[in-house]
Hints:
Layout: H1 3-7, H2 10-22, H3 26-42, H4 46-73, H5 94-97, H6 104-107, E1 111-115, H7 122-135, E2 140-144, H8 145-152, H9 157-169, E3 172-178, H10 187-198, E4 203-208, H11 215-219, H12 222-232, E5 236-240, H13 264-275, E6 280-281
Parallel strand pairs: 1-4, 1-5, 2-3, 3-4
Antiparallel strand pairs: 5-6
Helix pairs in contact: 2-3, 3-4, 4-7, 9-10, 10-12
Amino acid sequence: MTPASRGLPSSGLGNVEQKLALLKLGRMHEVVASWIERAAATQMGYADFLDELLSEELLARQEKQLRRRLQLATFPFAATIEQFDFTLRPELKRSVILRYFDSSFVTSAGSLVLIGPSGTGKTHLAIAAGTKMAQLGYSVRFTTAQHLANQVLGLIPAARSQALRPWLSCEVLILDEFGYLPLDPQIGPVLYELIAGRYQKGATILTSNKSLPTWGEVIGDSTLMMAVLDRLLHHGEVFYFRGGSYRLRGKEALALAPTEATSPTASASSTAEVASSPPVFIPHS
Protein backbone atom coordinates (compact mmCIF):
# COMPACT_ATOMS: atom_id res chain seq x y z
CA MET A 1 0.00 0.00 0.00
CA THR A 2 1.42 3.37 -0.98
CA PRO A 3 1.58 6.33 1.44
CA ALA A 4 -0.90 8.23 -0.72
CA SER A 5 -3.38 5.39 -0.78
CA ARG A 6 -3.51 5.39 3.02
CA GLY A 7 -5.17 8.82 2.77
CA LEU A 8 -7.40 7.89 -0.18
CA PRO A 9 -8.15 4.52 -1.78
CA SER A 10 -6.17 3.91 -4.96
CA SER A 11 -9.34 3.91 -7.05
CA GLY A 12 -10.41 7.18 -5.44
CA LEU A 13 -7.01 8.78 -6.06
CA GLY A 14 -7.12 7.62 -9.66
CA ASN A 15 -10.54 9.18 -10.12
CA VAL A 16 -9.36 12.46 -8.60
CA GLU A 17 -6.28 12.56 -10.83
CA GLN A 18 -8.38 11.79 -13.89
CA LYS A 19 -10.80 14.61 -13.13
CA LEU A 20 -7.97 17.05 -12.46
CA ALA A 21 -6.49 16.15 -15.82
CA LEU A 22 -9.83 16.63 -17.58
CA LEU A 23 -10.21 20.02 -15.91
CA LYS A 24 -6.69 20.90 -17.09
CA LEU A 25 -5.52 21.48 -13.52
CA GLY A 26 -2.05 20.27 -14.39
CA ARG A 27 -0.14 21.27 -11.29
CA MET A 28 -2.80 19.91 -8.95
CA HIS A 29 -2.71 16.67 -10.92
CA GLU A 30 1.06 16.46 -10.37
CA VAL A 31 1.02 17.10 -6.61
CA VAL A 32 -2.32 15.80 -5.32
CA ALA A 33 -0.90 12.44 -4.23
CA SER A 34 1.93 14.00 -2.22
CA TRP A 35 -0.46 16.49 -0.63
CA ILE A 36 -2.83 13.69 0.38
CA GLU A 37 0.11 11.97 2.06
CA ARG A 38 1.12 15.21 3.78
CA ALA A 39 -2.45 15.92 4.88
CA ALA A 40 -2.81 12.45 6.39
CA ALA A 41 0.51 12.76 8.24
CA THR A 42 -0.26 16.19 9.72
CA GLN A 43 -4.02 15.77 10.14
CA MET A 44 -4.54 18.78 7.89
CA GLY A 45 -8.06 20.15 7.72
CA TYR A 46 -10.09 19.95 4.53
CA ALA A 47 -10.05 23.70 3.95
CA ASP A 48 -6.28 23.94 4.43
CA PHE A 49 -5.72 20.96 2.14
CA LEU A 50 -7.83 22.50 -0.61
CA ASP A 51 -6.17 25.89 -0.12
CA GLU A 52 -2.70 24.38 -0.55
CA LEU A 53 -3.71 22.56 -3.72
CA LEU A 54 -5.27 25.68 -5.21
CA SER A 55 -2.19 27.72 -4.29
CA GLU A 56 0.01 25.23 -6.13
CA GLU A 57 -2.16 25.52 -9.25
CA LEU A 58 -2.32 29.31 -9.09
CA LEU A 59 1.45 29.67 -8.71
CA ALA A 60 2.10 27.29 -11.60
CA ARG A 61 -0.25 29.25 -13.85
CA GLN A 62 1.35 32.55 -12.88
CA GLU A 63 4.80 31.14 -13.70
CA LYS A 64 3.54 29.84 -17.04
CA GLN A 65 2.00 33.22 -17.90
CA LEU A 66 5.25 34.98 -17.00
CA ARG A 67 7.27 32.64 -19.21
CA ARG A 68 4.82 33.38 -22.02
CA ARG A 69 5.10 37.14 -21.54
CA LEU A 70 8.90 36.95 -21.50
CA GLN A 71 8.87 34.83 -24.64
CA LEU A 72 6.64 37.33 -26.45
CA ALA A 73 8.86 40.20 -25.31
CA THR A 74 11.73 38.73 -27.41
CA PHE A 75 14.46 40.14 -25.17
CA PRO A 76 17.92 39.46 -26.66
CA PHE A 77 19.25 38.50 -23.22
CA ALA A 78 18.14 38.33 -19.59
CA ALA A 79 18.82 41.31 -17.32
CA THR A 80 17.70 42.49 -13.89
CA ILE A 81 18.12 45.71 -11.95
CA GLU A 82 20.14 43.79 -9.35
CA GLN A 83 22.79 43.06 -12.00
CA PHE A 84 23.19 46.73 -12.93
CA ASP A 85 26.27 48.31 -11.31
CA PHE A 86 25.25 51.82 -10.32
CA THR A 87 28.72 52.52 -8.92
CA LEU A 88 29.99 52.63 -12.51
CA ARG A 89 27.22 55.07 -13.48
CA PRO A 90 27.21 57.67 -10.67
CA GLU A 91 25.17 60.02 -12.88
CA LEU A 92 22.23 57.63 -12.41
CA LYS A 93 20.48 57.49 -9.04
CA ARG A 94 19.05 54.09 -8.21
CA SER A 95 16.11 55.59 -6.34
CA VAL A 96 15.16 57.65 -9.40
CA ILE A 97 15.56 54.80 -11.88
CA LEU A 98 13.41 52.52 -9.71
CA ARG A 99 10.44 54.78 -10.43
CA TYR A 100 10.34 53.12 -13.82
CA PHE A 101 10.16 49.65 -12.26
CA ASP A 102 6.72 50.38 -10.79
CA SER A 103 3.27 49.84 -12.27
CA SER A 104 2.69 53.61 -12.23
CA PHE A 105 5.07 53.84 -15.20
CA VAL A 106 2.58 51.83 -17.24
CA THR A 107 -0.64 53.28 -15.84
CA SER A 108 0.62 56.81 -16.55
CA ALA A 109 1.76 55.79 -20.07
CA GLY A 110 5.19 57.19 -19.28
CA SER A 111 8.31 57.34 -21.41
CA LEU A 112 11.95 56.73 -20.60
CA VAL A 113 14.76 57.72 -22.97
CA LEU A 114 18.28 56.43 -22.29
CA ILE A 115 21.12 58.06 -24.22
CA GLY A 116 24.84 57.34 -24.20
CA PRO A 117 27.77 55.59 -25.87
CA SER A 118 27.68 51.90 -26.71
CA GLY A 119 28.26 49.52 -23.82
CA THR A 120 27.18 51.84 -21.00
CA GLY A 121 24.23 49.70 -19.91
CA LYS A 122 21.28 51.34 -21.65
CA THR A 123 19.90 48.12 -23.13
CA HIS A 124 20.53 46.23 -19.89
CA LEU A 125 18.52 48.78 -17.92
CA ALA A 126 15.74 48.82 -20.53
CA ILE A 127 15.43 45.03 -20.48
CA ALA A 128 15.54 44.98 -16.68
CA ALA A 129 12.63 47.43 -16.58
CA GLY A 130 10.75 45.44 -19.21
CA THR A 131 11.31 42.22 -17.28
CA LYS A 132 9.94 43.81 -14.12
CA MET A 133 6.86 44.99 -16.01
CA ALA A 134 6.34 41.45 -17.34
CA GLN A 135 6.58 40.14 -13.77
CA LEU A 136 3.89 42.64 -12.79
CA GLY A 137 1.62 41.20 -15.46
CA TYR A 138 2.03 43.68 -18.31
CA SER A 139 2.61 42.83 -21.96
CA VAL A 140 6.06 43.88 -23.19
CA ARG A 141 7.68 43.99 -26.62
CA PHE A 142 11.36 44.59 -27.45
CA THR A 143 12.69 45.56 -30.86
CA THR A 144 15.62 47.43 -32.35
CA ALA A 145 15.10 50.42 -34.60
CA GLN A 146 16.71 48.53 -37.47
CA HIS A 147 14.48 45.49 -37.00
CA LEU A 148 11.43 47.76 -36.92
CA ALA A 149 12.53 49.37 -40.17
CA ASN A 150 13.16 45.99 -41.81
CA GLN A 151 9.69 44.76 -40.85
CA VAL A 152 7.59 47.68 -42.04
CA LEU A 153 9.39 49.67 -44.74
CA GLY A 154 8.19 48.90 -48.22
CA LEU A 155 4.74 47.81 -47.04
CA ILE A 156 1.60 49.52 -48.22
CA PRO A 157 -0.09 51.67 -45.50
CA ALA A 158 -2.69 49.04 -44.56
CA ALA A 159 -0.08 46.29 -44.27
CA ARG A 160 2.24 48.62 -42.37
CA SER A 161 -0.43 49.37 -39.76
CA GLN A 162 -1.01 45.62 -39.38
CA ALA A 163 2.72 45.00 -38.94
CA LEU A 164 2.94 47.74 -36.30
CA ARG A 165 0.00 46.40 -34.29
CA PRO A 166 1.99 44.25 -31.81
CA TRP A 167 4.21 47.23 -30.97
CA LEU A 168 1.28 49.62 -30.80
CA SER A 169 -0.92 47.44 -28.61
CA CYS A 170 1.61 46.22 -26.03
CA GLU A 171 1.57 47.91 -22.64
CA VAL A 172 5.35 48.44 -22.63
CA LEU A 173 7.46 48.96 -25.77
CA ILE A 174 11.26 48.97 -25.77
CA LEU A 175 12.77 50.50 -28.92
CA ASP A 176 16.50 49.85 -28.79
CA GLU A 177 19.52 51.26 -30.67
CA PHE A 178 17.84 54.24 -32.33
CA GLY A 179 20.51 56.01 -34.39
CA TYR A 180 23.14 53.27 -34.21
CA LEU A 181 22.77 52.42 -37.91
CA PRO A 182 21.77 54.64 -40.82
CA LEU A 183 18.01 54.42 -41.31
CA ASP A 184 15.92 54.77 -44.42
CA PRO A 185 14.34 58.27 -44.52
CA GLN A 186 10.94 56.58 -44.67
CA ILE A 187 11.37 55.43 -41.06
CA GLY A 188 10.35 58.93 -39.91
CA PRO A 189 6.62 58.56 -40.68
CA VAL A 190 6.72 55.03 -39.24
CA LEU A 191 8.28 56.25 -36.00
CA TYR A 192 5.71 59.03 -35.78
CA GLU A 193 2.86 56.56 -36.33
CA LEU A 194 4.25 54.33 -33.61
CA ILE A 195 4.87 57.01 -30.97
CA ALA A 196 1.68 58.94 -31.75
CA GLY A 197 -0.31 55.70 -31.61
CA ARG A 198 1.10 54.87 -28.19
CA TYR A 199 0.77 58.42 -26.81
CA GLN A 200 -1.31 58.42 -23.59
CA LYS A 201 -1.93 54.67 -24.08
CA GLY A 202 1.26 52.74 -23.39
CA ALA A 203 4.66 53.08 -21.75
CA THR A 204 7.71 53.41 -24.00
CA ILE A 205 11.45 52.96 -23.37
CA LEU A 206 13.88 54.11 -26.05
CA THR A 207 17.68 53.83 -26.14
CA SER A 208 20.04 55.75 -28.41
CA ASN A 209 23.66 56.77 -28.86
CA LYS A 210 22.57 60.13 -30.31
CA SER A 211 21.73 63.24 -28.29
CA LEU A 212 18.24 64.67 -28.74
CA PRO A 213 19.22 67.67 -30.93
CA THR A 214 20.54 65.30 -33.62
CA TRP A 215 17.53 62.97 -33.81
CA GLY A 216 16.10 64.95 -36.69
CA GLU A 217 19.20 64.11 -38.70
CA VAL A 218 18.69 60.40 -38.02
CA ILE A 219 15.38 60.37 -39.88
CA GLY A 220 16.15 63.32 -42.15
CA ASP A 221 13.19 65.40 -40.95
CA SER A 222 13.65 67.72 -37.96
CA THR A 223 10.05 68.95 -38.03
CA LEU A 224 8.63 65.44 -37.90
CA MET A 225 11.07 64.48 -35.15
CA MET A 226 9.95 67.46 -33.06
CA ALA A 227 6.39 66.09 -33.29
CA VAL A 228 7.68 62.69 -32.16
CA LEU A 229 9.63 64.14 -29.23
CA ASP A 230 6.70 66.31 -28.20
CA ARG A 231 4.62 63.19 -27.60
CA LEU A 232 7.43 61.01 -26.33
CA LEU A 233 8.59 63.49 -23.68
CA HIS A 234 5.25 64.88 -22.53
CA HIS A 235 5.17 62.26 -19.76
CA GLY A 236 8.80 61.21 -20.06
CA GLU A 237 12.33 61.78 -18.87
CA VAL A 238 15.72 61.53 -20.55
CA PHE A 239 18.86 60.19 -18.87
CA TYR A 240 22.36 60.51 -20.31
CA PHE A 241 24.89 57.75 -19.61
CA ARG A 242 28.56 58.63 -19.34
CA GLY A 243 31.78 56.64 -19.13
CA GLY A 244 33.27 53.71 -20.96
CA SER A 245 31.83 50.43 -22.11
CA TYR A 246 31.06 47.67 -19.62
CA ARG A 247 32.24 45.18 -22.20
CA LEU A 248 35.70 46.76 -22.44
CA ARG A 249 36.41 47.06 -18.73
CA GLY A 250 39.93 45.90 -17.91
CA LYS A 251 41.00 45.93 -21.54
CA GLU A 252 43.31 48.31 -23.30
CA ALA A 253 41.69 51.12 -25.24
CA LEU A 254 41.15 50.19 -28.84
CA ALA A 255 42.49 52.56 -31.49
CA LEU A 256 40.79 52.23 -34.84
CA ALA A 257 42.89 53.38 -37.78
CA PRO A 258 40.96 55.79 -40.00
CA THR A 259 39.99 54.56 -43.44
CA GLU A 260 38.63 56.27 -46.51
CA ALA A 261 35.12 55.45 -45.31
CA THR A 262 35.76 56.68 -41.75
CA SER A 263 36.46 60.32 -41.09
CA PRO A 264 38.48 61.03 -37.91
CA THR A 265 36.76 64.39 -37.69
CA ALA A 266 33.32 62.85 -37.91
CA SER A 267 34.25 60.20 -35.36
CA ALA A 268 35.51 62.80 -32.89
CA SER A 269 32.42 64.89 -33.50
CA SER A 270 30.15 61.93 -32.75
CA THR A 271 31.99 61.20 -29.50
CA ALA A 272 31.90 64.81 -28.40
CA GLU A 273 28.20 64.96 -29.19
CA VAL A 274 27.28 62.45 -26.51
CA ALA A 275 29.94 63.56 -24.05
CA SER A 276 28.79 67.18 -24.16
CA SER A 277 25.17 66.29 -23.49
CA PRO A 278 23.75 67.15 -20.06
CA PRO A 279 23.56 64.26 -17.59
CA VAL A 280 19.81 64.40 -17.12
CA PHE A 281 17.08 66.18 -19.08
CA ILE A 282 13.66 66.43 -17.46
CA PRO A 283 11.06 68.09 -19.68
CA HIS A 284 8.33 70.23 -18.18
CA SER A 285 4.89 68.68 -18.30
